[in-house]
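[step 3/7] fold_predict: job queued, chain A
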Amino acid sequence: MKKIETALPGVYIIEPQVFGDQRGYFMETWSTRNFDEMGLHYDFVQDNQSFSAKKGILRGIHFQNAPMAQAKLVRVTKGAVLDVAVDLRKGSPTYKQWAAVELSAENKRMLMIPRGFGHGFKTLTDNVEFCYKVDNLYSRECDRGIRFNDPSIGVDWGEVAEDLLSRKDTESPLLADSDCNFVYGEI
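[step 4/7] structure written:
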């Protein structure tokens, strides 16, 4: 596996080693040993999967407040997405900055997003299967979102069709109005 830095310290593109021949391919998508060797120490406790039927569906910007904050290792098993991580840690040198990367079944890249960051994606194809590991269990009480088009963050999603957004995502508050409790150095 290969770890590639992004514009946000702590957010990494992970490229697995793929072994292929005329029959297909094999790759490891998670290995405690490999991640430890890369300096990424996570104890994942839950796997999640979502399906998005249409190109242009946007999901995010989502996170869980502390004490149930989650680090995520995300990947696409079918189709392609524009995947975005946003630094939500007050006091961070990169507060409100974001990094975006294309993840697809074809490129097999993954994105490692630490605690303290919001996450979202926009589908670039129809029929997207999106999988992710998290290092903390889901908590309805701590589940939060920031409006996808918050001007203080300014994620460039391209064109967004309002009819392809969930109610949760259209009703999420702006960061300034949220109760996001991430503080740099504490999470």
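[step 5/7] annotate
The chain has two helices and 13 strands.
Residues 43-177 form a domain with the Jelly Rolls fold (CATH 2.60.120.10).
exit 0
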